[in-house]
Amino acid sequence: MSHLHIDDFSHDVARILMQAYMRFPSPGALYVEDVIGPTEVDDVGLHSSRHMACLGAMIWLADEGFIRYEATIFHEGLEQAVLTNKAFVLLTALSELRVDSPDPQLPATVQHEKATLAEQFIQAIRAQDSVRTTAVVRYLLSRQPQPVPADEFDDLITPASPASDKEWL
After folding, report:
1. pLDDT digits (tens, 9 = 90+) for 127-162
2. Cα 104–chain centre separation
């Protein structure tokens, strides 16, 4: 039996994080409607369980240290939401999870960007692939930020050796 609420959660997490990532480092409002589309309120003004689950995912991401926000906007979303350092580092790190291999003909900088977790999220959302989205979300949630090794950028940066320390100044 499929656990549809987990699939919904994974899709919500992916879209919430990517909305915050796309405007990082500027804080802004995150609306449930922007994540799951418009929803109707019932006769007494209550939102659907799907709407409330998405809002719950937003608050859970904040509780787990992936986003920060200043206040809720009623039951509509979060005000002044922004990625935390933890989320930024995880999303921009090279991912060991490779759904697609970057084209070796691409420049090193583009290959590097396509190997990040953020790019994995973007591709999973574009493909509308539930299994892929869930896999990327679970991978992200199981990780802790690690120091970025300097050799990660070896193929991107080729420093010229200065003849003296004065050339660096």
Report:
1. 998 888 999 999 999 988 777 677 766 666 655 555
2. 25
Q: Minimal CA–CA distance to 75: which of 58, 59, 55, 50?
A: 55
Helix-, strand-, coil-residue percentages of the chain, each rounded to 5? 50, 10, 40
**Residue burial 70-106, b: 16+ Cβ < 10 Å; e: rest:** eeebeebbbeebbbbeebbbbbbbebeeeeeeeeeee
DSSP secondary structure code for residue 149 in this structure = P
Query: In whole angstroms, how far apart are CA 29 and each of 3, 62, 85, 107, 146?
Result: 29, 14, 18, 35, 29
Interior CA angle at 3 toward 132 and 127, to 5°? 20
pLDDT one-digit tens code per residue, 71-117: 999 899 999 999 999 999 999 988 777 666 667 777 667 767 777 88
Indicate the SS3 state at residue 26.
coil
Closest by CA position to 97, among listed 118, 117, 127, 111: 117
* Span 32-82, pLDDT tens digits: 999 999 988 888 888 889 999 999 999 999 999 999 999 999 899 999 999
Give CB contacts under 8 A, 24+ apart, made by 123-129: 123/99, 124/14, 124/99, 125/14, 125/15, 125/18
